[in-house]
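User: Batch of two.

Assistant: Item 1 of 2:
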Amino acid sequence: MTDAQTGLVVTTPIIIVFAVALWRMGVLRTTGTVVAVLASVAIAASLFLTQ
């Protein structure tokens, strides 16, 4: 696994945790949280597979 792939594996869950934490605090709506999680997973997957 390259350094870039390792970075993606580490940062994507962090982004998801922050999105869920913001949703629980009432800062993000449910749709915004879902979009943020899906976008981060899609971007990470595409970048991971193209590395």
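Item 2 of 2:
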Amino acid sequence: MQAVTQATMEFMKEYRTPLICGFVIVAVLPLIVGYVVLVERKIMADMQARLGPMRVGPHGLLQPIADAVKLLIKEDIIPDDADKLVFWLAPVLSVGAALLAIAGLAIGPAFQIAQGINIGILFVVGVSAMGIFGIVLGGWASNSHYSLIGALRSSAQLVSYETAAGMALVCGLLFAGTLNITSIVQAQYDQGIWFGLLAPVAFFVYLVASIAETNRAPFDLPEAESELVAGYMTEFSGFRWSLYFLAEYTNMIVVASVATTLFLGGWLRPFPRTHWLTWKSTGMDFFDFLPALLMVVVGAYCLARTPKQPVRVQQLFMLAVAGMCFAAAAVLAAPVIVPFVKPSLAAAVKPLYEGIHGGFWFICKVGLYIYFFMWVRFTLPRYRFDQLMRLGWHFLIPLSIINVLLIGIAMIIGSYYHLNGWWLLLATIPASIIALIIALFILALEQKGQPQKAAGAAPDSYA
């Protein structure tokens, strides 16, 4: 017994940091997802000229807590003819794959559970792709036609768009020359340019494919309520139903983090190697002070809105938010001001600066990526399933394959003429334009070759 205890203590001592990070993710991520849902409902309400959730807490901020409690105390119903074991495990598999994929991500240079893993991007993409098994098994175990059709739609959709997304990621990996997440971000720093600018077509393909992979509108065909009665999760209720939505929103964070790491510079600030308005010999410039300034602006806006709140509790809440913004501004400004005041502490403060500011920029980029998901959901109508498949197989996959080939040729030309950084755009931008033209030409030829419907033919009511 003593040997087991000693071995356990040694294990905890060696892997203390990854275990703490994993516990933080499992404990905090559901809360973050709940408030992402609240933000989405608020954005939808703003686009529709209404207020959204306002009843539970100041400005409706306790609504996610109320929703979580409601789902936890709801009756858990399992159909009589369902495969109960698979029915129980399916949503756990989906949310487990989504949470495990986060282990390979790096939220700034100081926060990564699987540190130093040489196949970081491959690990994240491979593990997150396992979430489809939870959807397929959930639809099959429900013993329902609607659920089964939704699961089959989901498997076809994810297989189709995984191919395009994988080929898009290859373009970024060609520029980085490595699968290690930290090395990918460092490569973008060394070249002084984000890979999304060098390969805009690849970034566009991954953006569209990531929307389809996460079953988000306008590609939410596996759960099209108007056709399939909520699709693969028709028979799920209460807590199990919430696990599927937790997996969906966690996958949104995963694909946004992968896109940020590979195409948007990761935790690097804009123009990481450009120094404008540099102060003294510290090397700090305007962009280093920008995060603190942004938080000050948000805090000042909250103070200005405080007297306009109709209820006392809402006024107190706005004051509290303003105070938190000013506190965050102080934390963000401290690593910049300390070397400015006392240059001898610059080396000691640098890791703190990289961790805090890197996390800030990474979270901002991921937030903007997820906001684009929401904006598309409330703007574009849902695709038909045949349109969804045609977009994936007839346009995105040919475009991504041609783009990879031409980007490879552009890199060979760039290395021959010693093009690097922004100068490499001279080779990659023409390659991206040519790839887009060829893909559009192939799509036009394919549509031209399709048989035209007769003028007097009866319309297809299903389509």
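The chain has a mean pLDDT of 84.
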